[in-house]
Amino acid sequence: MTEFPISDTSVRMGRPPMNVKPTVVRLTQEALDRIEKVAGPNQRAAFIREAVDSELDRREGQSENSVQNGGDDGEKQ
Question: How much of the chain is in helix, strand and coil states, percent to nearest 5?
Fold first, then answer.
């Protein structure tokens, strides 16, 4: 019987890693329905990643503006 090596290289096959970590987020059914309506079917995770990145950028920008303006970011509490 002929033996075949499993692999003679260490190259990984398949999809490249996305460098993301799975996280559980609990959302209402209404929010999930809204996301699917806006993002399209099977696009929930991509939509949530994009929304989180956008919100982080926005808040980090507010933080920088607050420091530059001496603590007054122009928003009323």
Answer: 45, 0, 55
Give the predicted TM-score (pTM) of the model: 0.62
Phi, psi for residue 9 in degrees, rounded to 5? -130, 160
How confident is the model over 23-66, as pLDDT tens digits?
Answer: 999 999 999 999 999 999 999 999 999 999 999 999 999 988 87
Handedness of CA 53, 56, 62, 68 (dihedral sign): negative
Gap between the terminal Cα atoms of the chain:
78
CB 65 within 8 A of CB 73: yes
